């Protein structure tokens, strides 16, 4: 582990990565920690907080860029370790590393742009009647130390220095990571890079810690620790809900931003039941063994001959596909079980099933089909099959689509393929999609999430535990900020972002209008 | 009741207002509703939602202004009814009516200003390598029908057409109000005015309903109703926590914005232990019988002769003050009980106690004193005494203040009085105050909350259930919005705020920069 810049070897059992392709244990073993290390990391984070949050946005931007540089400085060792621990291909991991450093640098840009502190100023009007108007200034302050849970499926981009860490650090919050047990070596390499950047930036070590724990207790202890102020999590629905329950049962409840489960409905209109769309769908479904939160697990296809032909094409393509090694043996087993549960539901037919891959942990991709009425009658068909499996729902038109969409749980994405002549029908559907999903994709596929300013990777429960936010993209910084107002403070006491001299050069909203707007 | 524009007389008991000064029941009795009326109002809100949220910000602004006009159109009848039901003085109610209509008109300004929809656009770059960059556009959409609970202490400004209602309607959410049982007549008058504005704006009646219920069941049914998407509440800690528990236990949990309890610490530095400050404090404490969420219930005064003299002055002034009629007999009894509990704690001394007022429901104001060490040892001394009572904590300087502040629960406000020579000490305290309170007041008093763009009337738990927001001021609109991203949608399908033609003239952030900034 790494606690406030110090290497710590836990004594509560050990965690060892496993090559998911062979099942072979990888060296070294990592000593696992428990409540003592949670206490030490949380306290160090708390002690670092006031120093860290007093840094200017420009200083924090430089810090984030140093982390990106240090992660890149790990070179091939990082990619090789992540490959061994996750089974993910090298090319994917190089791309993911670019995404990881890219989002650190994007948050640096956000900090330099000047509106992340959300400054609002309503100046005094001493001559207002019947009472003078006070001077009121608002800025957003970081909430406090943040607990981040590394994900299984993004060992770089949603783990030790991933999106949650980057946005929390950008907000001014120290971070305590609970590294994912599937890739402790990758986590420690990245943690070392972050610690290097902490030191190079002259920041207190408590700004960043990374814990390893053998079971789920360490995560519960972290979320329950009184000095932790918010939680970022990407993982399973059961895991996210367990942390949410811990957070809500605290004497002082804290927000949990858990990105949990989504089956990402796809709506194919009649004019788009083409072979190209079938190929695009199967490609998106099987990409990375289907291990994406945005995997298209539900596809609405109209009944009739064109739909039948489309489904047959999909079935043939899936039948020709081979399984890929999944992230862990447990994830592989859970996928097989989830797909079997869907297959066993009355009315569900198998459309196509590929072959298992060459390793013992590469289950076959599969696609199933069901009538919309059976789908509506059986909510269990909405359960996520995390991996390369999907359910096609056959329907009789937009009224069916509306009914099915309204019956859906919250989703990260909804995808539409339609021709211009069908836009009137799409327009009927759109308001329902907006209520169920955080992102609406047209003519493409939900896998592949741009990291930019407009992205929403969030959505109504249970896609996330808090559908007011996003975990990808620059809006994610807002999860870790809260507003504070200062009334009639003398200039000598005003914090920099709301000081009349504006030393941090923040964009300011004065009397409700953004300054400098033409 | 008023359900979707229709008058409805409930059959589950009746609610009758009581003159809090005399205990006399007021005419008429209002038929109370239950689950059936909740269902009817929630369904009407849901049915109105898509129509209402499709209105332009400009149309919603005009609607809010019509509500303000209609509330003013109620004239003296409204003030007289509110006075009879609440016991509040006429002048106060006229001011409160101005605040109510003022905040409706302020939200209209916000809608016209153009940034409330939060538009962010990252345009496509087809030639990006290795993959083309999609077009991604983000806007915020309203969350859905909102349940609003009228407060006891603001029969106008935080009740039927108060701050929660105004911000939810501004966001594009239909509203179902649970009117406060202490002022059902006031609530019905205002509900009628809102319904008049709904009709005059050509909106569906379901945009607004106002329910009356005899017990707490109707509120729980409302918060638990599957079509309700968020909750605004101002009231007691027990009431807020009960609604929060209902919301979290739903199959789909929803956000609850409950403004609950706060004792609003005041820090008096040695150079400000003046008679003027004593007078200001007692004035703020006893204003409106102390029935404000921002009432200064905790005052830090240094030990020593100057502090002793200040406490004696406060004691004398409080001793000379008379109680005022409280909002309800129940609130009066709860105040007496809460003050008695504080008085009974070991180490607590009474500094001064006024006389009861002339009505049977006007308990005497009181001020107590305790040593900081006893205060730290007894968390029960942080319990709110809702009414004109305060606890003075005597201490030995900034280290004591820091320790006591860190031990405080979350607060709406923190107030500081200090001379320039003491600013260095205040600067040490400020970071601790920022973590505990939503608003920091200097040289004034926390009662009196400006409705503007910079105000924060919120704070960490248990001041509110969600310290990331405010319930007063224009930022309050954000509570009822969530972001949605549109990826590669053809222009024909893009909603107005993210359409390339920008027909609603929204401020837009393009590639992370606000358009039009010099």
UniProtKB/TrEMBL annotation, chains A, B:
Pfam families hit by this protein: Aldedh
Keywords: Oxidoreductase
Basic and acidic residues bias spans: 122-137
Mitochondrion recorded as keyword: no
Aldehyde dehydrogenase domain segment(s): 13-425
InterPro entries the record matches: Ald_DH/histidinol_DH, Ald_DH_C, Ald_DH_N, Aldehyde_DH_dom, Aldehyde_DH_Superfamily, ALDH_KGSADH
Residue ranges, annotated region (Disordered): 117-137
Listed CDD domains: ALDH_KGSADH
Keyword Oxidoreductase: yes
Stated name of the protein: Aldehyde dehydrogenase (NADP(+))
The organism of origin for this protein: Pseudonocardia humida
């Amino acid at each position: 582990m790494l606690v406030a810049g110090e290497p710590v070897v836990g004594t509560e059992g050990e965690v060892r990565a496993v090559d998911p392709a062979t099942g072979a244990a990888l060296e070294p073993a990592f000593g696992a920690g428990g409540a003592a290390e949670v206490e030490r990391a949380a306290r160090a984070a708390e002690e670092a907080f006031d120093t860290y949050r007093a840094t200017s946005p420009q200083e924090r931007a430089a810090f984030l860029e140093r982390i990106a540089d240090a992660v890149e400085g790990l070179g091939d060792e990082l990619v090789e370790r992540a490959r061994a621990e996750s089974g993910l291909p090298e090319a994917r991991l190089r791309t993911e590393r670019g995404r990881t450093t890219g989002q650190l640098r994007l948050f640096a840009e956000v900090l330099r742009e000047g509106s992340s502190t959300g400054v609002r100023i309503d100046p005094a009007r001493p001559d207002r009647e019947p009472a003078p108007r006070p001077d009121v200034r608002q800025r957003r302050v970081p909430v406090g130390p943040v607990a981040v849970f590394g994900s299984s499926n993004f060992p770089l981009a949603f783990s030790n220095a991933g999106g949650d860490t980057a946005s929390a650090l950008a907000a001014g919050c120290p971070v305590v990571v609970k590294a994912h047990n599937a890739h402790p070596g990758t986590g420690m390499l990245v943690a070392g890079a972050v610690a290097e950047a902490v030191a190079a930036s002259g920041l207190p070590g408590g700004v960043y810690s990374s814990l390893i724990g053998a079971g789920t207790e360490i995560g519960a202890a972290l979320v329950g620790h009184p000095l932790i102020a918010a939680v970022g999590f990407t993982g399973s629905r059961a895991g996210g809900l367990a942390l949410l329950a811990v957070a809500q049962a605290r004497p002082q409840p804290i927000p949990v931003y858990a990105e949990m489960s989504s089956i990402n409905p796809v709506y194919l209109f009649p004019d788009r039941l083409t072979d190209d769309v079938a190929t695009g769908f199967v490609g998106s479904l099987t990409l990375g063994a289907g291990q994406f939160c945005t995997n298209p697990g539900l596809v609405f296809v109209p009944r009739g001959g064109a739909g039948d032909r489309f489904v047959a094409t999909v079935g043939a393509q899936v039948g020709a596909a081979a399984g890929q090694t999944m992230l862990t043996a447990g994830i592989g087993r859970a996928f097989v079980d989830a797909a079997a549960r869907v297959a066993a539901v009355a009315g569900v037919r198998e459309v196509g099933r590929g072959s298992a891959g060459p390793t013992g942990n590469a289950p076959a991709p599969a696609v199933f089909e069901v009538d919309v009425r059976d789908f509506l009658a059986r909510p269990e068909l909405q359960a996520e099959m995390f991996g390369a499996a999907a359910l096609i729902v056959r329907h009789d038109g937009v009224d069916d689509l509306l009914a099915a969409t309204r019956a859906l749980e919250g989703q990260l994405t909804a995808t539409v393929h339609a021709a211009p002549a069908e836009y009137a029908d799409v327009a009927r559907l759109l308001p329902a999609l907006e209520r169920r999903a955080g992102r609406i994709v047209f003519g493409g596929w939900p896998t592949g999430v741009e990291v930019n300013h407009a992205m929403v990777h969030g959505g109504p429960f249970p896609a996330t535990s808090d559908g007011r936010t996003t975990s990808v993209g620059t809006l994610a910084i807002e999860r870790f900020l809260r507003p504070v107002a200062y009334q009639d403070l003398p200039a000598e006491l005003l914090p920099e972002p709301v000081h009349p001299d504006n030393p941090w050069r923040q964009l300011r909203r004065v009397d409700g209008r953004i300054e400098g707007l033409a």
